[in-house]
């Protein structure tokens, strides 16, 4: 049987690639009943909110993907405060701390890709005063209509500076790569794709990066799924009833999110592709403090 997605398997000795380093960016308690169907009350996991440093092999351009958890949790909107009130959330080392520890000044970062605008991914944008922030197009409305102008909003309007933001339009997702029909070839050389990842929150994007010249890739899945068992099909995405009796889900569009999870799961059968969720507790426990974290590099698969 032919290998799936041959475009992901073609080695090229002259192909630029991306070195990917994990960044410590905070720890949070993931309440299973909100994410994993069939979970029992009281089940939870302490998991990371991972961020990443990306380095282009030829230009040496540096990008950060996601900013993790900010220390000042009280700065978040009331709607977020309600969600996190009874959860354990700590940031022993922020993204900016992680960069400095590895020998890099956050002020030297010129590009930050933000997967989406939830509190555990936006970090402290003010620590990156010289960066342009890249987001999916639908994130713009969330910022412009965020808190405090909309008192009920879960997104802080000042979370990311609009004056230094680039929102990728639908017309910019012109590439098809692997199982993903809509992707943006960021450098134009096949080394780094920003992938449209619908369902979780408007504007949600993922990253697919080639990690060497011999056919290895990594897929940074953000919040496409919150547990590896959702990718393997062992478990399903949770729903529950809110205080008003409405059936709700952690994904704003569950149907689209489930379809995207299926696409991400298809990568599990592709040789030499590493799929990494933002809140992958198992991977974190196996790798924390090791060479996968900056200034080290996640080894190509």
TrEMBL record:
SMART domains reported in the protein's UniProt record: Lactamase_B
Membership in a protein family: Belongs to the metallo-beta-lactamase superfamily.
Domain of life: Eukaryota
Domain Metallo-beta-lactamase per the UniProt entry, residue ranges: 48-279
A Pfam family hit: Lactamase_B
Molecular functions per Gene Ontology: hydrolase activity; metal ion binding
InterPro entries noted in UniProt: MBL_superfamily_lactonases, Metallo-B-lactamas, RibonucZ/Hydroxyglut_hydro
Spans traversing the lipid bilayer: none
Keywords from the UniProt entry: Hydrolase, Metal-binding, Zinc
Coiled coil (residue ranges): none
Cofactor entry: Zn(2+)
Protein name stated in the entry: Metallo-beta-lactamase domain-containing protein
Gene3D superfamilies in the cross-refs: Ribonuclease Z/Hydroxyacylglutathione hydrolase-like
UniProt KW DNA repair keyword: no
Cross-referenced PANTHER family: 102 KBASES UNSTABLE REGION: FROM 1 TO 119443, QUORUM-QUENCHING LACTONASE YTNP-RELATED-RELATED
Extent of the signal sequence: none
